[in-house]
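Lecture notes, unit on binding sites. The following record was shown on slide 14. It pairs a sequence with uridine-5'-diphosphate-xylopyranose.
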Amino acid sequence: MGTTGTLGTEPSTGPSTGPAGPGQVEPQQVCVVGAGYVGLTAAAGLAELGHAVRCVESNPGRLATLAGGGIPIHEPGLDELVAKHLGTGRLSFTGDIEAAMDGAEVALLCVGTPPRPDGDPDLRQLGRAAAQAAAAATRDVVLVVKSTVPPGSCEALELLAAGHARPGVRASVASNPEFLREGQAMRDFFFPDRVVVGVDDPALEPVVAGLYPKEWPLLVCDRRSAELVKYASNTFLAVKISFANEVAALCEALGADHSKVLTGVGLDGRIGGDFLKPGPGFGGSCLPKDLSGFIAVAGSMGQEATLARAVREVNDGSRASLVGKLEAALGPLSGKRVGVLGLAFKPGTDDVRHSPALGLVEDLVALGASVQAHDPVASVPSLGDGQVDDPYEAASGADAVVVVTAWPEYGDLDPGRLQRCMEGHVVLDAVNLLDAAAFGAAGLDVYGVGRGHPLSVAPVLWRPLEWMIDAEPTVSLDEAGPEDVDVLAGR
Ligand code: UDX
């Protein structure tokens, strides 16, 4: 072991205060397998903490980008840290796992675990990574699984690794799930809510926990529990979002205000306000995948995962309701022109995996609409000429404009200019970003998610009135209109 490493400056994306933050570590020789979101963030973060990190990437194009000083993903603060530690020599990239594993005490496995078509996780990349890392290890090594995996995977990987390790070399496996969010990955790395370390052999705890400053909040447990923490966390986040979307749908029907209702709900400390924002449904590379993984794991244990299945159904319905709103405003969508603002699954990233926006584009095209889309960062080659460089160009000649990703620049759109570009006057704000009053003043009809329609206020009175009066109402509740308020109230 070398001298105690000291952290440098905070990442530019980090807050000035936080639950944990920079600290000190005993430097270790670390190999990171896979330079995707998780691997690159971990590699840059561990180098910043003081470790000597070699990152292996098998994709030649991605490796060439990294070797040339480029960053293949859009992640604020990551490029600065990578450049800094290519400079300090604490970080390097290679395609050669033998070179990367030479002398490594720890190997972080950060490869993808995408869902198979049936929803089960595809763990083949992980199996290959563990086998190759074990085979290349020149000393006893701990393979640390950062990728999201079904419980039991670490134990299975240890069996696999043992079959590939050189004689006399022990390859142990530990779980250390990653909780970073795209768009704020560096902040999440340096200010984690918790570091979860899953080990069955207590001797491995200091090696894995020792990757991080001891001030950081740490949960040590067995491997299966650690593996399940990740699935359960993402499933619960999905539950919260789908719950928010269900409440928002009810707000629309009742004429209530989702922002007040969900703020009121979230202010309960037992519930918490995060992840209660309604929108077009959750997307991205993790929540949909981990929800499917949770359902698959439960299924493999003979359990139904009833709540998780319902969450998926609500999420599919959230996207479908956008199409429903457009149809309600425009009539049949065939032949209509729709401007779609936002393609990334959320702002701050160029990732379009499981993006609600792309799903919406597919739905619109399937219904015969023509789509012009814009995103400030994400690019979708399959859209061809259908993706344009300017939001006003996307709105040009459109019957309706839909804001699907909450990029801050869309909040700054000029309502008058947008209105002049458009053929129609319908704006569907699926992320509740726009100043509805300003757009309304410019002659646009703005529909949000979870903002009630004034007309829904009258019908909502009927059932409570029925529940309050003894006599049968003299007017049929199904046919009653606003003019029947007095009759129903017995006045
Ligand atoms: C998520 C988890 O947050 C992270 O801990 C895990 O490691 C990976 O998966 P990420 O996929 O980057 O991170 O995005 P996140 O910020 O969690 O958002 C996921 C989706 O939920 C997005 O589509 C987002 O727009 C949506 N969302 C989020 C809502 O619709 N409402 C909310 O209140 C919050």
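Take-home: The two ends are 86 Å apart (CA to CA).
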